[in-house]
Amino acid sequence: MTKSHIFEAEPYPLPFEPAATALLIIDMQRDFLEPGGFGEMLGNDVSLLRTTIEPCTRILKAARDSGLTVIHTREGHRPDLTDAPPSKLSRGGLEVGIGDAGPMGRILVRGEPGHDIIPELAPGDDEPVIDKPGKGAFYETDLDLILKNRGISTLIVCGVTTEVCVHTTVRQANDRGYECVVLADCVGSYFPEFQRVGLEMIKAQGGIFGWVSDSARAVQALG
Ligand code: TIU
């Protein structure tokens, strides 16, 4: 089937159909992005993630204006932590970790202020929010069902962090037959080297996991 639109991206242009394309915004949560949150408490420089906010707002607006399906995800757990693997709870031997009282409420617990999406990218009423217990957005969620019901085959991917939840999600999507375009300026890492290599890994070997583009080319593609 011929597709009506072209996404300029690496390693080569990707034809796509807006009606079969979703914007997927991964884990743009206060605890990862805001000063005084869990991410900063772990010693990370959140300014490295905050550069993604402005380009994400631009692509979010363009996606809404074009009538694209928009889906947001959040990493977090039930207040009783029954959906958190013991390995995840103990990993790192942190003094203050998942479920503990943090600077913005209980860390990575659903319903707590730090778990929420930053106000700049607040989900619209008609935009599904996927609460995920793992790094990948397809693991133990209804994301795949929602995408199939909408007839979605292409994902424009934004969010944090590039090498953790974005990469895991893109790999899961790729194995399920989705075509992913990751927007380089809309994904962020606390580690500049991981950001660079994470993006290289997606588009290497002829697009082994998908495509890499940026917000300017995404806005143009949707235009
Ligand atoms: N959303 C996401 O990437 N969760 C993480 O824990 N990321 C880290 O880089 N730690």
Question: Any chance you could write out the topology, listing elements then pairs?
Answer:
Elements: E1 5-7, E2 14-16, E3 21-26, H1 30-33, H2 38-41, H3 47-50, H4 53-65, E4 69-75, H5 86-90, E5 101-102, E6 105-106, E7 129-132, H6 143-150, E8 154-160, H7 162-175, E9 179-188, H8 192-207, E10 211-213, H9 215-222
Parallel strand pairs: 3-4, 3-8, 4-7, 8-9, 9-10
Antiparallel strand pairs: 1-2, 5-6
Helix pairs in contact: 4-9, 7-8
The structure holds tricarbonodiimidic diamide.
Task: Summarize, please.
Helices cover 34% and strands 21% of the residues.
Task: Explain what the structure shows.
- The protein is an alpha/beta fold.
- The chain has one domain: 3-Layer(aba) Sandwich (Rossmann fold), CATH 3.40.50.850.
- The protein contains nine helices and ten strands.
- The protein has helices at residues 30-33, 38-41, 47-50, 53-65, 86-90, 143-150, 162-175, 192-207, 215-222, and strands at residues 5-7, 14-16, 21-26, 69-75, 101-102, 105-106, 129-132, 154-160, 179-188, 211-213.
- Strands 7-4-3-8-9-10 form a six-stranded parallel β-sheet, sandwiched between helices.
- The radius of gyration is 17 Å and the shape is globular.
- The model has no long low-confidence stretch (mean pLDDT 97).
